[in-house]
Amino acid sequence: MFRQAKNIDSAFRQLRLFSILVIISCCLISCYVIYNCYKSTVAVQSRIYILANGKALEAFAGDRKENIPVEARDHVKMFHTYFFSLDPDDKVIQSNINKALYLADGSAKRVYESLKENNYYTGIISGNVSQEITVDSVRVNTKVYPYYFRCFATEKITRITTITTRSLITEGYLRNVSRSDNNPHGFLIEKWNTIQNKDLKTENR
Length: 205
Fold this sequence. Notes:
The protein is of the alpha+beta class. About 45% of the residues lie in helices and about 35% in strands. The strands form 2 sheets. The protein has a 4-stranded antiparallel β-sheet with strand order 3-4-5-6, with helices on one face. A two-stranded antiparallel sheet has the order 1-2. The protein has 5 helices and 6 strands. It has 2 domains: about 1-50; about 65-205, Nuclear Transport Factor 2, Chain: A, CATH 3.10.450. This is Conjugative transposon protein TraK. InterPro entries: Conjug_transposon_TraK.
């Protein structure tokens, strides 16, 4: 009888041990499945499909920190392109300036108002002058916030009888703001200042 009791007790211990092992195994498998599902979900969410020319192209979303230098340089380039690309048409000038002022703070607006008061834009319209800008390079220091930048560009001013080439160097800081249709990169130029804007050469047409 005692032997039978011992056998029952031993069988109960073995069953309990087996049950514990099964439960632990189930927990480990469940954790592994949940982890893999989470990884798969994150991977799927990071994929972006862009429709171009009727074809769906796959792109991958990345951390903004990786793209800050690229986006910052393009933001500065866009601002200078809008601000300095002028044609003898009041609507074109106003459209470009409005686009530029969305990308910068009051420092850019003060420069615009100063040029307007000095009849700079009126002179462009009345003299049939076209002004183009080519941004040669933009240097951005992303180690310190707000991000300091320096822009090197070349202006080409086409008048009726001459073409003038100018060297333009500006500087300022970039502050993070919310992205929008008017400001796709989510930066705002602050303390914008012109370091150099001098004539390089003038050619007769």
